[in-house]
GNAT family N-acetyltransferase
Amino acid sequence: MTTAAAGAADIEVRIVRDEDSEEWQRALSNGFLSPARTGEAAAEWWRPRFAPGRILGAFDGARCVGTFHSLEFALTVPGGATLPVDGVAGVTVATSHRRRGILRRMMELDLERARERGDVFALLNAAQYGIYGRFGFGPAIRYTGVEIEVARSRGPRPGVGELPVGAAIEPLTMAELVKAGPDLYDRFRVRQPGAISRSPLWWALETGQAEPSAGGRATEPIAVAYRDPGGRITGLLTYRADNAFSGGDPHTTVTVVDHFALDRTAEAALWRHALSIEWAGRLVVPHLAPDDPLPRLLVNPRAALPLRRSHEDHWLRVLDAPRAFAARTYEAPGRTVFEVADAQGYVAGRWSLETAADGTGVLTRTDDPAELALDAGALSSVYLGDATVPHLEAAGLITELTPGAAHRAGLQLRTSFAPWCPVTF
Ligand SMILES: CC(C)(COP(=O)(O)OP(=O)(O)OC[C@H]1O[C@@H](n2cnc3c(N)ncnc32)[C@H](O)[C@@H]1OP(=O)(O)O)[C@@H](O)C(=O)NCCC(=O)NCCS
């Protein structure tokens, strides 16, 4: 029987089956305060998303009161290796059943299953800052956004983004985008630490062939490609425009939907193209790496105004520390001993990180005295190079037990560029 007062023991947390689809979706929609899908719309939403064993639910009798979705990704780490990741999404608990440990039970079950599968990390986009630190997640990938006043920017500096002889910017149809995009993205993402793989469903959503999860009508963006002098497509840009006029003149806001390129030449050529769209008064780029060079390509970088909603985006949770730290590369040699606290236990204990001049590194168990003390969330925050050890030490999130250890570990873990992930899920 369903009772709003059911205790934790009355709630069953289990893997969701195909036949749970409508009940689970209703709980998901309610949890995210959105209208529920039913009938054919619900079936259509479920079909590409249902993967046996990857969706969890909490049930009070027949009523679904908690949802949890695990997605399969590969994450690129500094140096270009890719590792399996448990992407956590669709996390909700019914308002009537909150703060009784239901999220905790779903999370603990999911992390255990991820570890058994061999996933090296879990990754999520956190709706609220305070939820996931207790489960060993730390903010690890940020993004920024800019709004460029096109005329005031005076475009890219002379020579920046000019097409090399034989290169071209070409319009693409959605069919062409779906054909060229996934392979090109796979080549891009292994060059971009922090990037994750994209599913066929992601491309269907990107090209307006599938209904957006949050509701609303699917629309096709405008797409262009950069073709290099050898005839290969090496960059893509998609955008939408509002076609606004001001005082009779066009003053359109062009908003970039997706952008990536295999090299800086293609990237700059696509930005030059975007800044020369005839009616554009404003170019909004909502999702950029925090240290993306775009503003500095402009004659007047002050015309690139930061968007207020930029923030930390992805939270990482290291599940298999030796595998994670052996896979990435390092810019400085050194050795530092960490004492890691982990409530779930996966990365708890004393570890030595040894990095060599050739860029390789290993993390091994040690009994040597600890030089730095931190928790699993802080370890995850510094792993991809976004947060630095000295910065977290200054914030009181890492404790320095041996003078100079934070600086040394900072040099070991630092990267020249911040990680960036162009996929939010
Ligand atoms: C966030 C949410 C899933 C939490 O579910 P829940 O079942 O109430 O969480 P639990 O009872 O398992 O709480 C586990 C721990 O997290 C803490 N916690 C839960 N929600 C929190 C929040 N919003 N902010 C800070 N801490 C939170 C609890 O206090 C508890 O702490 P403790 O075990 O260390 O004492 C639920 O409130 C919800 O559905 N919110 C709206 C949708 C949402 O924001 N989902 C997250 C999308 S990323």
About this structure: The longest strand covers residues 63-76.
